# Entry
Amino acid sequence: MKQVIFELDLLEEARDFLKSLPKEIRGKIGFNIRRVQKGEHDKELFKKLDGTEIWEFRTLYNKTCYRLFAFWDKDTNTLVVATHGIVKKTQKTPQKEITKAEGIRKKYFENKNKKT
# Structure
């Protein structure tokens, strides 16, 4: 069995998003995240958004796209911090969601730097 290559930390909004989804969808998202954690390189599952430090976990379930936004915290053994999630309704990821994830990332590192 492959070992997990990074830890995943879900921020409150990401946890709330997942809790709002039916159990089957949460299970599929979790299954896909574990595949990536074990080293599977598949842009259909985990992809860096162009021109940003934001990544998205991607899950397709019953023709509906689910996205969980994330970023790397390289200080803590490649911890991926998931910021929030959306049910994607268009082909292109909405810019406002990317901007929101970037803002959460910035605030995360500002708060982290205050603690050290």
Summary: DSSP finds three helices and five strands in the chain. The chain has a mean pLDDT of 91. The longest strand covers residues 64-73.
